[in-house]
Model the fold of this input.
Amino acid sequence: MTPAGLKLTHRSHDDPDRALNALSKIELVITDCDGTLLYTDKTLGSPAKEAVRKLSAAGVRFTVASSRPGKGMRSIVETLGVTTPFAAFNGGKLVDPTGWRTMNAHWLAREAAETALESLARDGIDAWVFIDDAWYITNPGGDYVSLERRTVGYDAVVVKSFDGIDLGSVEKIVASTKDAALLARKEAELQGTLKGRAIAMRSQSYYLDITHPLANKGEGIRELAQLAGVALEKVAVLGDMQNDVAMFDVAGVSIVMGQASAQVQESATFVSSTNDEDGFAMGVSGLLAVRE
Done:
């Protein structure tokens, strides 16, 4: 029987026993942060904190993977007592939280970064450049600057142009605009223009992330599982956006939040409630119920 609060997707509906058997063997849980672990207002609720505590009590390891920079994940990691390495920049950087040491990182090729920035500038789309934990912007009045400041917990460095920074050490470029349709078109365009040189994928309807080809959550989950000594079939992941599908594709079990698009939902094993309805906590409860 499917655990309370979880529904099988059409992808897994034909073999529910297999899906439930996989759920019962989970040893490592890795979750997306924004839109999954966190409420839409970026807060971390008590049900999520309690769910992580219950995972630890059951002997299931836990960590996080996000499009955020490592520094922007510090509050979450410390609040939840994460001691296992975690993934920042969509898997582009692995960080050891016990000493905040970078374990691995993938940088955009300079010419890919230049191509992306030129393309965004032509369409008047705000661009942000992340190098390590530094966040560079040219438009401090941009639509989502204040939201990002609140999300990552620190201020951007305002520059007149990106010409004066080292574009050979960029870990992520973010395109930001309220025009969701424009951003969708730009996503498709850059996926073609940068094919083989970078990934262009939205992490929110208003954010388009551009990263190294290996800076994706699928590769990040592979590396985190290997570091933990856990086989991928014993890893469960939770997410909500298109950039989470890469980790859905490699993990043994995937749980998607209820507000995700139909396409993203069909890429997962189970569907939970929305993030604002404690979908993360419900997903963890379902996992633990099967293990008991």
About this structure: DSSP finds twelve helices and 15 strands in the chain. The chain has two domains: 7-105+216-291, 110-211. The longest helix spans residues 180-193. The radius of gyration is 18 Å.
